[in-house]
């Protein structure tokens, strides 16, 4: 029995063929060209990129596919998409009354730069385009800038956020570097380098002052600095943000144990986990039931061998002060099993309590108990993502 007209209409509404996004209007010099000449223009890149980019949607509307266009012109499907989207971004800049000189700065080789700011609003695009030109950013720099501007509002409440201006691209990018600096040990060359990078792009004096405070460290004489907790704590504490994994260019998979497990379980966990092939297939030396994937933060990026994660159901078990962070929330403690020696009083280590439950202890406490070897050195503490925003745990909140 043939389908009814209503069913046919529903199917037509549900299953529509692919249509390219609205394209920029064809420049006058290309409007009278037949199909063969349009292909010739694309194949030989005759003109500026934003002039011939609209030819791609026009060919698709005539029945060409991205693969057939690639075969005829040598322009890959990825590059076709980049050209079309970048041309749309360029048009939006012109329509938003951006400085024509800024827009024309992208006429030569600017497609990949404009493509990176496609997800920004019209106002943000204009500000980002000027910043890209003024600072001579490459495609990677433009990508970082766009991500920083999109991410900045979600960081409200994070440490130092209020010192940076959301309306200024440089401050948004600076805050991203500032936040990344807190993922490194303090003090460390990586942390200092990230802070210096943040300082180099910051636009407001308030942001620069905040960064300089972290660069210079606490004031006071040597004795005061030695007793300052911020200098003594080398373990970063970060809250995983919503969508952060999806935006990470590199991730790390690590085996997970529960706090209720014994030290023996830690020893049984896979020692090595690596990515193989073009698809980054995760390969472990043996099977394991519990895994976690974390963004490629600096403290964990080198833990393909010996890395382990312990999940605690209550953050209050860790040795941090209870006056501000006395709350029950799950946390992940990332440790390096290749560093078992209790080598520093100010460091934190993963140990088994009387051979039973797992616990995090400060090096000084372990030395008092004459414990010279741990299950691993703690390198990072991860707090769970939350819809609401709040401050990250600062170094001085540790005991």
UniProtKB/TrEMBL annotation:
<dbReference type="Pfam" id="PF18579">
    <property type="entry name" value="Raf1_HTH"/>
</dbReference>
<dbReference type="InterPro" id="IPR040858">
    <property type="entry name" value="Raf1_C"/>
</dbReference>
<dbReference type="InterPro" id="IPR037494">
    <property type="entry name" value="RAF1"/>
</dbReference>
<dbReference type="InterPro" id="IPR040781">
    <property type="entry name" value="Raf1_HTH"/>
</dbReference>
<feature type="compositionally biased region" description="Pro residues">
    <location>
        <begin position="18"/>
        <end position="28"/>
    </location>
</feature>
<feature type="domain" description="Rubisco accumulation factor 1 helix turn helix">
    <location>
        <begin position="34"/>
        <end position="93"/>
    </location>
</feature>
<feature type="domain" description="Rubisco accumulation factor 1 alpha-helical">
    <location>
        <begin position="106"/>
        <end position="215"/>
    </location>
</feature>
<dbReference type="GO" id="GO:0009507">
    <property type="term" value="C:chloroplast"/>
</dbReference>
<dbReference type="Pfam" id="PF18087">
    <property type="entry name" value="RuBisCo_chap_C"/>
</dbReference>
<keyword id="KW-0143">Chaperone</keyword>
<feature type="domain" description="Rubisco accumulation factor 1 C-terminal">
    <location>
        <begin position="235"/>
        <end position="386"/>
    </location>
</feature>
<feature type="compositionally biased region" description="Low complexity">
    <location>
        <begin position="1"/>
        <end position="17"/>
    </location>
</feature>
<dbReference type="Pfam" id="PF18578">
    <property type="entry name" value="Raf1_N"/>
</dbReference>
<dbReference type="GO" id="GO:0110102">
    <property type="term" value="P:ribulose bisphosphate carboxylase complex assembly"/>
</dbReference>
<protein>
    <submittedName>
        <fullName>Rubisco accumulation factor 2, chloroplastic</fullName>
    </submittedName>
</protein>
<dbReference type="InterPro" id="IPR041358">
    <property type="entry name" value="Raf1_N"/>
</dbReference>
<feature type="region of interest" description="Disordered">
    <location>
        <begin position="1"/>
        <end position="28"/>
    </location>
</feature>
């Amino acid at each position: 029995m043939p389908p009814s007209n209503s069913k046919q209409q529903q199917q037509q509404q549900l299953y529509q063929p692919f249509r390219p996004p609205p394209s920029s209007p064809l420049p006058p010099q290309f409007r009278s060209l037949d199909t063969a000449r349009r292909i010739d223009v694309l194949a030989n890149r005759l003109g500026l990129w934003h002039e011939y980019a609209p030819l791609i949607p026009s060919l698709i509307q005539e029945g060409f596919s991205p693969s057939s266009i690639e075969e005829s012109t040598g322009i890959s499907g990825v590059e076709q998409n980049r050209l079309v989207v970048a041309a749309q971004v360029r048009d939006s800049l012109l329509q938003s009354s951006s400085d024509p000189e800024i827009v024309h700065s992208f006429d030569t080789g600017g497609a990949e730069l404009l493509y990176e700011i496609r997800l920004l609003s019209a106002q943000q695009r204009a500000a980002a385009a000027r910043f890209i030109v003024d600072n001579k950013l490459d495609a990677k720099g433009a990508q970082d800038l766009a991500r920083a501007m999109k991410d900045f509002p979600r960081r409200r409440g994070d440490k130092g956020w209020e010192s940076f201006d959301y309306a200024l691209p440089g401050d948004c990018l600076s805050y991203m570097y500032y936040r990344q600096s807190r993922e490194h040990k303090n003090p460390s060359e990586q942390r200092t380098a990230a802070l210096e990078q943040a300082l180099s792009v910051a636009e407001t004096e308030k942001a620069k002052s905040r960064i300089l405070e972290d660069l210079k460290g606490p004031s006071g004489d040597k004795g005061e600095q030695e007793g300052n907790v911020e200098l003594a704590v080398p373990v970063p504490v970060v809250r995983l943000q919503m969508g952060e994994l999806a935006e990470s260019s590199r991730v790390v998979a690590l085996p997970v144990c529960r706090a209720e497990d014994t030290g023996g379980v830690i020893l049984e966990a896979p020692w090595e986990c690596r990515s193989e092939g073009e698809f980054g297939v995760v390969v472990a030396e043996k099977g394991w039931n519990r895994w976690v994937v974390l963004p490629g933060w600096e403290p964990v990026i080198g833990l393909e061998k010996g890395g382990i994660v312990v999940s605690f159901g209550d953050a209050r078990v860790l040795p941090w002060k209870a006056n501000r962070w006395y709350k029950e929330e799950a946390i992940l403690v990332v440790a390096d099993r290749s560093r078992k020696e209790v080598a520093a009083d100010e460091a934190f280590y993963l140990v088994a309590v009387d051979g039973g439950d797992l616990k995090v202890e400060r090096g000084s406490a372990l030395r008092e108990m004459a414990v010279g070897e741990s299950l691993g050195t703690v390198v990072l503490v991860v707090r769970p993502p939350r819809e609401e925003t709040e401050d990250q745990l600062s170094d001085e909140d540790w005991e």
